[in-house]
Amino acid sequence: MEYQPDVRRITGEGGVIASVAAESLAAQIGLRPGDTLVAIDGQRLRDVIDYRFAIAEARVTLLVRAADGSEREITLEKDPDDDLGIEFTEPLFDRLRTCNNKCPFCFLTQMPKGFRKTLYLKDDDYRLSFLYANFVTFTNLTEADWERIERQRLSPLHISVHATDPFWRAIMLGKRDVPDVREQIKRLGRAGIRVHTQIVACPQVNDGEVLRQTIEDLIALHPTVESIAVVPVGLTKFRFEGKAPKTIRAAIQVHETPEWIDTNWERQPLWEDPSAPIPLRNGSQPLHDPELGFCSRLGAVTDVPLRCYTAPEAAAVLDLIEPYRSRCYEQFGLHLVYASDEFYLLAGRPVPPAETYDDMPQYSNGVGMVRDFLDNWARARRRLPAQIARPTTLALVCGTLVAPMMEQVAARLNRVENLSVQVVPVVNQFFGETVTVSGLLTAQDVIPALRASGCERALLPRVMFDYSGERTIDDYTLGQISAEAGMPVALASEADELVRYVRALTRHE
User: Fold this and answer.
1) Which domain holds residue 168?
2) Which of 142, 368, 414, 485 has the fewest CB atoms inside 10 Å of its own CB, making it the most exposed?
């Protein structure tokens, strides 16, 4: 799960200190958790990036505000490479940059009410792109933002492209005045900034020839573009219930309903506004047509269903992508274009070997995770014990998509004497059966599945939990799941963790 800031802890007054390392410079000068670092050398800090740049001096003056509101200035001399030894409660100190798009596949409009507020934040902040590899659209930048990116050399950045042609990108972002992402990437390249890109593909919309052109355009921007990932659209049952947005057009217009239009992101002109500029297919300048709104201009283009990929369609996407991988390797020495693991699993095809993922630049985007796990499992399973201390039944929880792969893992684990392993593929009742990935499992679905399994213990996928590994998407802790399921529960994401867990059972009393 991408990093999600907690706006309750973004004060706009500086960076609130969460912890101070023992014997660090910060500890020596008396900084404490709860203090706020407001400015360095007179420069007010907007985020942890400003902090890192400002602290890289031999002599710095800190403006610190204590929890009681009192302020003091502290001047210290140090090696320019020395950090103070502090961690902040949030990486952003000022206002979070919110999203100004209306993407038809936006996950937030597919969420039910009642979750913690951070899950409804429609963030699109280039700083989180730099710090945590969050994908952003680059549609909300001011010239001051551009100047800062170039001055501080914030590289690499991660951009959601979806389509390079302005006409199709306008559809995929649900808005009219979309900047040309190709020109934006060229500007980043001139500043020496590298870019990782993603394309969220929707059947019959931005796949096929649109996808081909997008990939061609992005390859032409290498080496500024260091990777191109194609991932399939994900849809929950909440996308189709209630308002039932069955088409691209209807899904975009959900953003304009009273439920969403005045939420915590930047309001945009309505779809049917006849005075708004209309992007043209050939990428030329937009027109103003008082007779036609944006939606009317697009016509049947947005009347196609918004739906998930079928297995044959996933195979067709792979057939389109694979030749580019070979071509790029011959031309650049790297494969550059990557399909997400989900496409291979959905199409029923084996994932490519590890070397075709290069250094796995989009691992956190679900590209190469399966191959990495399989290769690590091939090595880690050699360290499995011959037997464990006493008969134990263990549930391996996963989403339905990866269940066949986990069955292979379970088959080897069941050769350990006294260990009986059962794969528990959890059908996602909460978000709908179209959601098959492990990362969107909820505790509300997992707990009944664990009870029904009859197992004594369980291993859950770490990707079920938030960035910090503390809470599921429906706000359960590991301890709560364990208590309600009636069994010890642990987390694992890597093959080594799984083997270590089994080895620990050899000492279990």
Assistant:
1) 108-272+303-364
2) 142
